[in-house]
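Folding Problem: From Residues to Backbone Shape
Fields: amino acid sequence; protein backbone structure tokens
RECORD BEGINS BELOW THIS LINE
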Amino acid sequence: AVGAPGSGFSYSNAGYVAAGRVVEAVTGMPWEQAVRTLVLEPLGTAPAFVGDRSPRRPVAGGHSVHASTGRALPVRQTLAPVEAPAGALLTSALDLLALGRVVAGHGPASVLAPEVAEEMRRPVAGADPGVLADGWGSGLALFREGTTLWCGHDGNAQGTSCHVRAEPELGAVVAFTCNGGNGTELWHALADGLADITGLRVPTAARVPERGRAVPLPECAGTYRNGALEYRVTADAEGALALSVGGDTPAPL
């Protein structure tokens, strides 16, 4: 263990894998069955999972674009069965809207009681948000837009990108899915368009933190390869570093 429980925070897919195992122990059902029975079907969502040989709904194929060549290639989702709770669910934007209403406290109480949804949205004290969000609740990322706190989550994997934001006071939910690994850029553009049309500004990413005093950085910008996989490290005019893996959208380091 890195630290005592409650003393620190780090976003980790392994945490969701552990949560999935807890779900199995509590319900007595495999994770897929529990999610299907307790959440998806009550919301009217036809379940589909990575690895399904005969999915019950149409599933879009994923694509990845190589940044340097602009070439798009089809990719297939791969996820070990034990890691299913960390990202094996296949959904549409409409499915994410239904789920967003639940975590905002406006969905069926049989799926999630409003008081439990409120607890999930409550910021966890001492959780250093990092670069992925402005704060964290119980499994939910929190994003601040002015004085308003939105909840939701982002998900990116091979050839896919999805985003959902929910604001409980307004009852507003915005969801986006893309069958491309670089869909985050389109998500930002659509959110800007939504603000221009409706005046509703949806936080698409965490606020940029105060960087403080500049410190010297090693000369690590460049392109690196591990077998067929390419890693590109870039630095902007202020020296801030970003990493792109396999041509995907750069993430700040």
